[in-house]
Amino acid sequence: MERNSNRTVVVTGFGPFGEHTTNASWVAVQELQKLGLGDEVDLYVYEIPVEYQKVLDLIPSLWKRHNPQLFIHVGVSGMATTVTLEKCGHNQGYKGLDNRCYCPDNHCCVQGGPDCLESIIDMDIVCNKITDPQLDVVISVSKDAGRYLCDFTYYTSLHLSHGKSAFIHVPPLGKPYTAEQLGRALQTIIGAMLGVLERPNAKMNCQLGH
């Protein structure tokens, strides 16, 4: 039997919360699933509830199940007007309540962990590589994923994967992009990320204030 040499990529979006009764991140991930990442990439997608404890349970479980080359998380930001590549996740400062009106007592992801962890993927390089004239979406780079479930998930994933994770923020649907536009943007971005994955130049332990 021929061994499957495909790369494995896991992509998550979030379920509803607050005013986001339809979460654009999960809609965008479902659009990505329709498009796929090509014949050489096995794509798995999952919806994550907006709950701290679910994140702490699910992220390690999915890593163990798939051992992916890259684990990508997509979240919605009500303030975003671009598709935003997040450089790093933060360990401290989690005070917002989740869907179960809970937040961690210590307000952090990993007790004793570094304040900031960066992806091994250089997001500036990814952003600069995306020159597809058919992609009618503006892409930007950020150092602040927001200190809520998005940031919490990103840090948790970076800590487990030794940096082999990425986080992408999308705007709410129609503000200004359609689900189809967001799905194509994710497909293009993830393709670019896989292209630079062999260039692990990012610092894993970032002590700078973001």
TrEMBL record:
Any GO BP: proteolysis
Q: List GO terms (cellular component aspect).
A: cytosol
- InterPro entries the UniProt entry points to: Peptidase_C15 (IPR000816), Peptidase_C15-like (IPR016125), Peptidase_C15-like_sf (IPR036440), PGPEP1_Glu_AS (IPR033693)
Identify a single GO molecular function assigned to this protein.
pyroglutamyl-peptidase activity
Where are the active-site residues found?
E86
Q: Say if the entry is tagged with keyword Protease.
A: yes
Entry keywords, A to Z:
Cytoplasm, Hydrolase, Protease, Thiol protease
Q: Where in the cell is it found?
A: Cytoplasm
Name the PROSITE patterns on file: PYRASE_GLU
The record describes its quaternary structure and partners as:
Monomer.
Its biological purpose is as follows: Removes 5-oxoproline from various penultimate amino acid residues except L-proline.
Family from the record? Belongs to the peptidase C15 family.
User: What name does the UniProt record give this protein?
Assistant: Pyroglutamyl-peptidase I
Q: Which organism is it from?
A: Scyliorhinus torazame (Cloudy catshark)
Q: The organism's lineage?
A: Eukaryota, Metazoa, Chordata, Craniata, Vertebrata
